UniProtKB/TrEMBL annotation:
One GO BP: cell division
Gene label: ftsX
Family stated for the protein in its record: Belongs to the ABC-4 integral membrane protein family. FtsX subfamily.
Entry protein name: Cell division protein FtsX
Location of the ABC3 transporter permease C-terminal domain: 201-318
Keywords: Cell cycle, Cell division, Cell inner membrane, Cell membrane, Membrane, Transmembrane, Transmembrane helix
Protein purpose: Part of the ABC transporter FtsEX involved in cellular division.
Source organism of the structure: Brumicola blandensis
Length: 326
């Protein structure tokens, strides 16, 4: 009885060892083929660099445009906060009534900031900026009304939301005129939307071209190794085993191309940042270009590797199966 139990235990242990050994051999075989495929790229550096360069630059252009559009949205958000709704109050509104209006407006969820400019202060500022100087002292009364400046929250700073807020503010009894110059904001939003559509269209076209280029490169590699593939099939190698090195080649193309694209985008953004500083100084806006963060880098690398694998998969599934011993 003990011998039978012992035999079963040894059998279970051998099965367990065989299972773990098979897993170990599986990963070892994959690692060996991955390293060998990288060695193949190293043995033909010029052709490999050409393919990696095409993939890298194809990803660089949409990635750079995406980062620029993303930063443009941040610029527009800053300008949205600076674009104020001007409420010109009625002539008979006293400072006490104006303060009551300010208290009510500060409770509105659509409003971020509220500022009050009394009529006498508005006249002083106009006197300094207009160049009329002492000529305004001859006026019998102050022609300028008190003004309330309202800054909407970022959620309500879009052209449509700001227009709705303006109509709501005009209904306040103390307000005579409400003004908001949203035409430039609408143009900016329209340009950003057009830029997004162009980036998406350009990215799709370039990615499709990358898949075709990598697929053609893998196809040429398969044809160059046609005799080797025939011999491997004669000795019993499966299509999956034969296809694996070519798939790893596509993986390396994608990974190296993604790294190249990332480095290129960083250099482009550094160059653009110097020009952007001089431009933003004219508008007195403190702005720095936000480069790619870790999540954007990972997305770029995954996209690049995916394109490399997609091109290699399309090629090997068609051409490896067509090669058969005669």
């Amino acid at each position: 009885m003990s011998l039978l139990f012992k035999g079963r235990a040894q059998g279970a242990e051998s099965v367990r060892v065989g299972f773990f050994q098979s897993i170990f051999m599986f990963f070892t075989d994959h690692a060996r083929q991955a390293v060998n495929s990288l060695g193949e790229l190293w043995r033909s550096p010029f052709a490999s660099l050409m393919t990696i360069g095409v993939l890298g630059f194809s990803i660089t252009l949409p990635s750079t445009l995406y980062v620029i559009v993303k930063n443009t949205e941040q610029i527009s958000e800053q300008w949205q906060q600076a674009s104020e709704i001007s409420l010109f109050l009625e002539k008979g509104v006293s400072n006490a009534d104006a303060q009551q209006l300010l208290k009510r407006l500060r409770l509105w969820p659509e409003i971020s900031e509220v500022a009050y400019i009394p009529a006498d202060k508005a006249l002083e500022e106009f006197q300094l900026l207009s160049g009329f100087g002492d000529a305004l002292n001859y006026l019998e009364e102050n022609p300028l009304p008190a003004v309330v400046l309202v800054v909407p929250t970022s959620k309500h700073a879009s052209p449509t939301a700001a227009g709705i807020l303006l109509d709501k503010l005009r209904k306040e009894r103390e307000v005579e005129i409400g003004k908001l110059d949203i035409e430039w904001l609408e143009r900016l939003y329209a340009l950003i939307n057009i830029a997004k559509d162009l980036v998406t269209l350009l990215a799709v076209l370039l990615f499709f071209a990358v898949v075709l280029i990598i697929g053609n490169t893998i196809r040429l590699n398969i044809l160059n190794k046609k005799d080797e593939i025939v011999v491997m099939k004669l000795v019993g190698a499966t299509d999956a085993f034969i296809q694996r090195p070519f798939l790893y080649t596509g993986f390396w193309f994608g990974l190296l191309g993604g790294i190249m694209a990332w480095v290129t985008v960083l250099f482009i953004l550094l160059w653009v940042d110097f020009s952007m500083d001089a431009f933003m100084e004219k508008y007195q806006v403190d702005f720095n270009i936000t480069a790619m963060d870790l999540s954007t880098l990972l997305i770029m690398l995954m996209m690049s590797v995916g394109l490399g694998l997609a091109g290699s998969i399309l090629s090997v599934q068609r051409h490896v199966k067509d090669i058969e011993p005669r």
